[in-house]
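Data availability excerpt. The first of two example chains:
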Amino acid sequence: MNRRSKLNTLLALTASLYLGFATPALAQNPTVIKLGWTTSDGAQDPYAAGARAFQSAVERETRGSVQVQLFPNRQLGDERQMLEGMRFGTVDAGIITNAVIAQLEPAFSVNDLPFLFANEAQAHKVLDGSVGAELAKRLSTKGIVVLGYMEGGFRNMINNKRPVNTPGDVTGVKYRVMQNPVFIDMFNSMGGSAIPMAWGETFTAVQQGTIDGLEIPLAVIDANKYFEVTKFLSLTNHTYSMIGLVISKRSLDKLTPEQRTAVTNAAKSATAIQRQVSLADAKATIGKLEKNGMKINAVADVGAFRKSVGPVYEKFRKSDAGPLLEQVLAAVK
């Protein structure tokens, strides 16, 4: 049995345990948490994997007294809309891209700084430690509670102009970026043309040639079929993509103390499972994308890219979240 099969078996087992322990009374009148995300519900989509793991863990931990309903594909709105809904209690929960959370709480931008993390383990160390705790504290003042720091995988560049081997290859290429200053500054510092754009508009924009490409995790390329509209995939690994499992404080406060504890514990176990699934899928996805016609290249000299984005770090150091960057750098050293 391969690693992916083992993880799927684990998810199935947790679901069956929930069904075995749920009492009829609890199952008849459960509290419902509606969980949304903007990407697909595909088997390899990291957002979907996190949602399914959380659903299974919550229903197991609460013995059915809390149920999680899943809403993929922007059914609850774009990510910024979902965050605003969580602030006011009209949306329960979501799995949201870090850069969009940073639009609400700018300190989260520290996670998106380019070429900051060399591997997933470094990112986990930072997010599961004092930096992650500080970020969660800041977001809680906006009425949103962090339940877990899930993993979208490292982000890479795809486009229809040319492979990216050096920063110069980014020059003159129109890249869709998230509506976040770090991503805008990153691509502009490399000479590219950063085009902020909502996720729901991006596929059509690439297809019609309004933009040349975008930057995106491997699993999201595959799950959303970007291999159909882009030619080149360059494994730049420029940003570790944290995706936050977050819930409205108002929705969380509606639960009993026992349910809140169970949901919090469920989120921790679901986050651990989702990270394993995401990493396994990312490694398998490269071969799939190549079979689907994408021309794939690795980047030999990461140092040249780090040098080119130096101004992004200097600008961040001058922000209110500058001290957080020093904590991150100390942790990854």
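And the second chain:
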Amino acid sequence: MISRRLIRVKVFKVLFSRINSGSDSLTGAVDDLLNSCSKTLDLYFFILSLPLAMRKIAESKIETGLKKYQPTPEEVAPNRRFLENRIIEKLDSDDVLLKYCEKRGLNWNDYAPLVKKLYTSMSAQDYFLDYMSAQENTFEDDRNLLIRFFEEELDENEELNAILEDLSLYWIDDLEFVINVITKKLGSLKAKSKFVHPDVFLKEDDREYAFKLLETALINYNKYVEIMAGYIHNWDPERLAATDTSLIVLGIAEAVTFHDIPVKVTINEYVELSKYYSTPNSKVFVNGILDKIIAGLTAEGKIEKKGRGLVGSLE
């Protein structure tokens, strides 16, 4: 499930936390990383179950209207299209989803006010009004409605982000990625097919990559900082932003350890992370220093790339 970029983020956070807390226990660090990765799958199921909670809000609203002493014509004959959405019905009969959420206590019962706000916001949007008033109702219409909801209603929602952060610190950087996974799965879903849920890692190679990257960076941290010091003239490594140091160490670890990852990919990935997790000037600094270090280690024969298209990639 989780991408290489998200793996890098998670490894960076574990490494940064361990180094700054003075704990260099590899076992503890690996446990932290595994927990962080598995929490992404928890968030996937939690967010995927949200339409079920929204349907309860919609159903309650209809029932309240029917019980009024003088209901409006719309309340007497309510539009039940959203309640009968085929995708939501699939979710409601998905044993894997329901059992996973039940086992881990992932439910929206304690967050009914947010669910109600999300439903109210969605129901006021043109895409929802068009969906509810359309003469025809196809599976594709049901599917597209939920895709639009996930793409448009959850982005930069401060209340949702606060709830997710309160539930798990590991979820802070995962929501956008999880939403993308969900919408892609919805986009490929057919009327007669079932949800195929992901595993934590897309493939076993990704699991090995995650743990090997963390292990190499943690074990060789001081060594790689010394190497970095040789490329930083008139700078004391201890005066550098701790985030920059961790990102550069990870870049060295990846370049040295993984012979099938192009150097340009490694540098670009850690420069990209520096934009979000370090100082405003970190992008230029990380790019320049990491490029020099990797070029130097390659010239010394300490970095070797193998595979088609990788040999000579530094030229």
